Amino acid sequence: MTPRIAVAAVTFDRHRELSILLDAINAQSVTVDSICLIDSGTSPARDVAATHPNVDYVRSEANLGGAGGFALAALKAVASGAEWIWMMDDDAEPADPECLAILLREAEARDLEAVVPLVVAPGQPDRLSFFFRLDGKVTHDRAEVEKVGFLPDDGHFFNGALIRSDVFFKVGLPDMRLFIRGDEVDFTIRLRKAGIRFGTATTTAITHPHAFSETKHVYGAGWHVIVPESAFKRYYYYRNRGYLIRRYFRIKSFVADVGGYAGYFVQRRDLAGFLDWARSFTTGLRAKGFAPLEDQKF
User: Fold this and answer.
1) Which of 52, 219, 251, 262 to pair with 245, CA 20 to 30 A apart?
2) pLDDT per residue as tens digits for the range 240-289
3) DSSP letter at 126?
4) Neighbours of 191 (CB within 10 A)
5) 132 has which bridge partners?
6) How far is it between the farthest Cα atoms of the chain?
7) Cβ proximity of 90 and 19 under 8 Å
8) What is the separation of C-alpha 112 from the centre of its chain, rounded to a whole number of angstroms?
9) Which of 226, 228, 237, 210 is nearest to 92 (CA)?
10) In terms of Cα–Cα distance, which of 103, 75, 82, 106 is closest to 160?
């Protein structure tokens, strides 16, 4: 018997992409019971949602960010009574109609509580949008990752992640305080700390825009930093990195960030860029703007 499945999706001013996503979800060989869609965009996508009868459309007049949108969408999906929640951003798309079926089979065969597909770049099915680190080196090569097979305790959340609904009762919802950039890292850390069984199924994929230009190698292939293209994204990425380092006492990440970004900006003689990173990063380290971190020390 096929379990009840609900999609938790978010959208922000991407009507065309959203329409493609909804069509692809409803073309899956496994039926999705409902699509809980949170719309925080400046131009409501109500008309797009209305073309699909199984969409539970929620209009948010506040910009919840990716984290807040996924939190509300996941909560709605859990409340629907679904056993599994399939997470989707509006610019993602299952690569084929068997994607959901394969994820379900992997979860059942490996007794997983969450399973994530590979994420490939649109128009470049052999190239991963987000890297994996194999043998200490970063790779975007899909074939190279597929050779490894199933990747336990690893995966890129939230796009395409299939999560048992009771997992959210164990680890909580995405942290809306992070807004964008970092909420998926925080959620992954919580999964590991709670002992949730999860991993990446390399036998299926979704497409999602890549961020190749953001990856900057500093000291060769083994050391890199992420530099988002807009000031808005840079602030949240740097700030949230600092916050998560403090929250989970991530010493290796602290060393990697300080050494990596210092090296990157010094090599480019970019004092303004370095100061921008330092201000945002230390804001996160101080947990400024966040509730007090009880029992946490840095």
Assistant:
1) 219
2) 999 999 999 999 999 999 999 999 999 999 999 999 999 999 999 999 88
3) E
4) 21
5) 139
6) 61
7) no
8) 18
9) 210
10) 103
pLDDT in tens, 181-230: 999 999 999 999 999 999 999 999 999 998 888 988 888 767 889 999 99
Which domains, ranges and CATH numbers included, belong to the chain? 5-207 (3.90.550.60), 213-285 (no CATH)
Query: Does an H or E element contain 145, and which?
Result: helix 142-148
Tokens standing for 74? 């996941």
DSSP string across 211-271: -GGGEEESSSTT-EEE--SSHHHHHHHHHHHHHHHHHTT-HHHHHHHHHHHHHHHHHTT-H
pTM: 0.93
> With DSSP H G I counted as helix, E B as strand and the rest as coil, what are the percentages for the chain, rounded to 5?
40, 25, 35
Residue type, 267: Q
Burial class (CB in 10 A: 0-12, 13-18, 19+), 143: exposed
Secondary structure (3-state) at 279: helix
Cβ neighbourhood burial of 136 (10 Å; 0-12, 13-18, 19+): exposed
Q: DSSP code of 178? A: G
The Cα-based distances of 113 to 67, 83, 89, 171 in angstroms read 21, 11, 20, 12
